């Protein structure tokens, strides 16, 4: 804390006094992490700073991704299921109460996966089972809009901040579908690379980063021109991407090599790699995703960057832990225990009232 001395201003005939906090000492809210455990059908709520397990919430079958509302009070979870037993619902969670509020059926739209809030009441969701993307009104529990991508495995989704466009990577087609949300149409498809899967949009909405897991590359798309402006390497099997809130860094999880690539988003260059050597206990379970393909990897997938722009959290599906990362020093700071097969992860400043 830095104290400002009393200052007498004779010309105004007043005396000002006060104290102010150094800009470098801004305190961010601790908040919580919401981590989805696919094998347990649960969402863990963990203290962001300590990893303490505050609560568990029952989800639908095999939850994959989670989005948090703009006010931080509501989390919505996609219940993907499996290819043999596809899910078709969303679980809505009241974060303060740490309770499931409702399940919303998506009817014929199966295998919901990627999700993002468009406003306080609506989410946009990919539904892999029938190559669609749907907009769901949470209050009314209705589907307001359906987009047919007609692409194979439409997986994640990222919408621009003003809500004009949304981008959907398609794993099987190796491209990104662009949705015009104002006009309610599929605008175009952009070929990015084999296995286009992860996606992150910059805080200012100017660019989208797409991870191409089969090509071991990241494509950067200008959201205004829809042109690919850069292509960066990120071996091996880049599967998710996340921006820091200030837009300065992008982190990419590499599932096969078991590490995280850190990029300078402004200059579009690789800063370094965070290795997860501290994770030395892997789970031997043949039913887990990629477990037979990526031997020896903790399989980092879901990732989110905290409000301090420096600390990141990555879910490791083969180790049942969230690794806490320091972006600037490229170090692993801590490991938080989760349920079985953690994947989707999000952060909110709202805490359960326990």
Largest sheet entry = 4 strands, antiparallel
- Domain module count: 1
User: In CATH, what is the homologous superfamily?
Assistant: YVTN repeat-like/Quinoprotein amine dehydrogenase
Rg (C-alpha, Å): 21 Å
CATH architecture: 7 Propeller
The total of beta strands comes to 30
Give the terminus-to-terminus CA distance.
31 Å
Residue runs with pLDDT of under 50 for 5 or more positions: 1-26
Describe the global form: globular
Order of the strands making up the biggest sheet: 5-4-3-30
Assign the CATH class. Mainly Beta
Whole-number average pLDDT? 91
**Hey, roughly how much beta strand do the residues contain?**
over 45%
Q: Can you characterise this structure?
A:
The protein is mainly beta. It has one domain (33-348): YVTN repeat-like/Quinoprotein amine dehydrogenase (Methylamine Dehydrogenase, Chain H), CATH 2.130.10.10. 0% of the residues lie in helices and 54% in strands. It is built from no helices and 30 strands. The strands form 8 sheets. A 4-stranded antiparallel sheet has the order 5-4-3-30, with no helix packed on it. A 4-stranded antiparallel sheet has the order 6-7-8-9, with no helix packed on it. Strands 10-11-12-13 form a 4-stranded antiparallel sheet, with no helix packed on it. It is globular and about 50 Å long. Residues 1-26 have low confidence and may be disordered.
């Amino acid at each position: 804390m830095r104290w400002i001395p009393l200052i007498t201003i004779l010309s105004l005939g007043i005396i000002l006094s006060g104290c102010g906090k150094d800009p470098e000492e801004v305190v961010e809210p601790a908040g919580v992490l919401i981590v989805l455990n696919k094998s347990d059908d649960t969402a863990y709520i963990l203290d962001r700073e300590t990893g303490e397990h505050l609560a568990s919430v029952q989800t639908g079958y095999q939850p994959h991704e989670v989005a948090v509302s703009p006010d931080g009070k509501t989390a919505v979870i996609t219940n993907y299921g499996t290819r043999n037993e596809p899910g078709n619902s969303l679980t809505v969670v009241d974060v303060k109460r740490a309770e499931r509020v409702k399940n919303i059926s998506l009817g014929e739209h199966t295998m919901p996966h990627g999700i993002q809030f468009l406003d306080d009441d609506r989410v946009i969701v990919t539904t892999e089972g029938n190559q669609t993307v749907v907009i769901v009104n949470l209050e009314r529990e209705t589907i307001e809009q359906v987009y047919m991508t007609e692409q194979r495995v439409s997986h994640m989704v990222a919408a621009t901040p003003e809500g004009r466009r949304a981008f959907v990577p398609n794993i099987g087609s190796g491209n990104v579908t662009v949705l015009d949300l104002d006009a309610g149409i599929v605008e175009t498809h952009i070929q990015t690379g084999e296995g286009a899967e992860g996606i992150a949009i910059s805080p200012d909405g100017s660019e989208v980063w797409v991870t191409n897991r089969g090509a071991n590359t990241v494509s950067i798309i200008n959201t205004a021109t829809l042109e690919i402006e850069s292509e960066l390497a990120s071996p091996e099997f880049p599967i998710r991407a996340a921006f820091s809130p200030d837009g300065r860094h992008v982190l990419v999880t590499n599932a096969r090599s078991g590490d995280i690539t850190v990029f300078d988003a402004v200059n579009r260059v690789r800063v370094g790699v965070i290795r997860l050597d501290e994770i030395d206990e892997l789970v031997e379970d043949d039913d887990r995703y990629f477990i037979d393909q990526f031997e020896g990897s903790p399989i980092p997938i879901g990732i989110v960057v905290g409000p301090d722009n420096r600390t990141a959290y990555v879910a490791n599906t083969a180790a049942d832990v969230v690794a806490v990362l320091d972006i600037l020093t490229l170090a692993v700071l801590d490991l938080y225990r989760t349920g079985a097969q953690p994947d989707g992860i999000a952060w909110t400043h709202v805490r359960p009232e326990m």
